[in-house]
Amino acid sequence: MVEVHDGPPMDGFSVPLRLHNLLLALAGRIDDSALTEARELIARAHIDEAVELTTGTLIAGRIPVSSAEQRELALVLEMSRSDATLANDLLVDETEPVNTHRFTGENAPEFGIAEALDRTLQVLPDVRSVHAVWRNTPAGSVPGALPQRVVLVELGPEGNPPAVAFRVDTALRRAGIHSVVEVSGPGVAHSEYHQAASAAASPAWVTGSTTSSSSSFRSEPVAKPPASVTPEPVGESGSRHSMRSGSTTTAPAEPVAPVVPIVSPPAAEPPRKARSETRAERTADLTPAEVAQLRQALAEDPEKGREIAAGKPSMHEVVELPALDLDDPSLSERDRALLRELHAELAERERAEAAKMRLNGASRSGGDQRGWTAP
Amino acid sequence: MDPDIEQSTHELLLRLAGRLPDQLLWRFRDWLGEGAMGTLARTLPRSLLKHRIDLDQTEYRLLVAGLIPHGADWHQVSSTLGVDDVTENRYTFTSSAPEWVNSVDSVSVLIHATLRGRSDVGEVRQSWRHVGVVGQGTAKRVLLINALSGLPRLTGELQRVLRVLGDEEPSVEVIPPRFDLPGYHRAALADSELVCVGAVAGTRLVAA
Questions:
Q1: pLDDT, tens digit, for every residue of A270-322?
Q2: pTM of the full predicted structure?
Q3: What share of chain A is helix, strand, coil (3-state, %, to 5)?
Q4: A contacts of B167 (beta carbons < 8 Å)
Q5: Of B10, B172, B185, B207, nearest to B88 (Cα)?
Q6: Which residues of A touch B17 (CB under 8 A)?
Q7: How does pLDDT run across A339-369, given as a tens digit for each residue?
Q8: Residue B174, SS3 per DSSP
């Protein structure tokens, strides 16, 4: 039998959170249905069923786990009063799993998410950011349809990751947005899978106060055309929870955080020239949304323009977007000079943030990529 | 794996169609197709108890024959034997595809391409399952396949194909010959359409 009492590195985490963090480490290695169902079971206090589903999926799919992961699964099985000997059937391989997944932010993976989550994000505490990305590669031994939308949610310390994962998934499903939801709380290192996903992800929603400082995901707002890839309806999709007793409605409550959708739903329109830009160009330059805001602010109040360029919280509205045009005859020489100045300030800020993010990324990748094994 | 044990568990999982939630049933069938009997033995009896699914005597014997040799908990297994009659099928079925299926039903075409003329496979039919009144709510595709051998493996294989095509919780009923069809399957067959026929001529799915 597996030794389960040797003090794994997740001591101090509650059993649901341990399993949640295990599932984060298994993302991309087991199928998305198993991840989603297990997270719902955790949120519904069916930890035993969640860990049995997870372990069974790994065993039947002959998906290798590390001995540390095996110990953790055995421990969660035991702590949830399941049969811990189930973990003996796991295939153990100490070789680090290589992330072979491909992600893309093209075709607006974030389309509709801010609207679908409007109510959810007002109710759930301490949600910091929501990003989305398409995954073009199959996950696990029984993969679902591709591309798979992956929704990445960052929480602050007040948030409960399993609960948020379940509620966000429920709200997206209700809106007809099929996805797998990965929720990271503070203090858990991001796996290689999550780093790759977040590198390509597009922002769907961030809190006004934490636009780019506390999120480990990229956060530049990029307006994109709607998705050209529409997953086929599955049929009887509403029956997923039909034989479970749980209700999927969220309880009404007062908003606890400012709600700031950064990308308004793009209207059906042809792809812009901006899509042909590289990501590096977009990171270092003003985005069309920022340019539009600057132009509008310049027209109304140059001081407001400075605020926007400095990234202050008054940057709440996103308006219709013409391209940056310093030759616009409606601009005065003074306006042009101010625009250039603001542009330079913003670029400097972007560079500083990019450097900071690179530093964070380096420190993460230097640790154990399996989040729950990190000290 | 002992073919009798495998067969017993397959027949039990067939009989649980429409009673165990789809999301559990397809997963258990996948595990059986992969030969993960130890996993099934430790999880299936508990799931039946948690979802308050009682077995009749025939089903109970299948559970004992299939999972006790693989370490299922005897107390859990014993508790699954019910006394009252098993609830009859609560679904309705139609043979025609719902409106959201394109005029070209690519899933059906793919199943045809995969199973037509295949050895050990007889008739392949499909039906659409509805909860409550037909036309209200969504319909779910149910595949009904007659096969002579390798039933769990074929089930798993087809489930994977359907999942990749967008059916997250596929309903694939691979039925052995001389199988006493439960009400669920009889109702589905009664309102089904032919997809294709495998290499086994003369083996037909017949609704009683």
A1: 433 333 333 333 444 444 454 455 455 544 554 544 444 444 433 344 434 34
A2: 0.72
A3: 45, 10, 45
A4: 234-235
A5: B185
A6: none
A7: 666 666 666 666 665 555 444 433 333 333 3
A8: strand
